[in-house]
Design brief:
Elements (H helix, E strand, L loop, with lengths): L14 H6 L6 H11 L15 H15 L6 H8 L3 H4 L6 H13 L11 H18 L15 H14 L6 H17 L2 H11 L4 H12 L9 H8 L9 H23 L1
Amino acid sequence: MASKKKRTAKRELTHADIVQASVRIDPDLRRRSQLLWDERSPKARGPKATLTPDDVVRAAVELADRDGLSAVTMNAVATGVGLTTMAIYRYFPNKETLIDAIVDAGMGRPPRSEPRGDWRVEVARWARAKRAGLIARPWLAELPFVAAPHGPNWLRWLEALADALSDIGLNGADIGQMLSIIDAYTRGASDTAVSLARARARGSSDEVWTGAVGADLGRAIGDPRFPRFAAVLTAPAEEPPRTLEESFEFGLQRVLDGIELYLARVG
């Protein structure tokens, strides 16, 4: 009888694996992200370029701001800057690298560092600024996180948040976890406001958007599969009701409360 081969259980990916990947660079991903880090200049072949790669990025960002991410094609960007489609490839070898560049540019920079004060104030300032950026450019939320290159602005945001947490008694591994928690809350709790911003950008009124969202949520009421959520929907409204921004602030303060409790435990 043939012996059965032992199956080795696949090890779960850990947070440390992701951090350690920063010193074991994937050469293919490094090449793809190189344009985000190096001084960008068009290829030397052909006539002298009249535009810079940053001009192309600015035009692509303006297009995304106006018409959404799906409108950003090599042809549309070329038309916007007065070039042929083929000429755009002198600046960016494909659409993927152009999208990488406009995402990093679209994120902008984090709030300017001030003399360090209370860590809660600094983290809250960071989260509010990140939320404001997502609402201002809702197309940033359309991008899936699929090992896409991350540029200088992405790291500037992480650096700013790590700086706010650096002297409060956390070790490096804990700071890394807190970065994930705060960023995840900021993005997740901004989803509704980003959806509203996207609807407004497409010309929809607040009433139409609210009606569409409410119609979907209301399916839970009376459906035996969703009794707990239906109870949430039919509970008496808050007085006064919280705005979307106030709801974000409520949740943010609870996240900070949790970090403070953790500090007290490990301190």
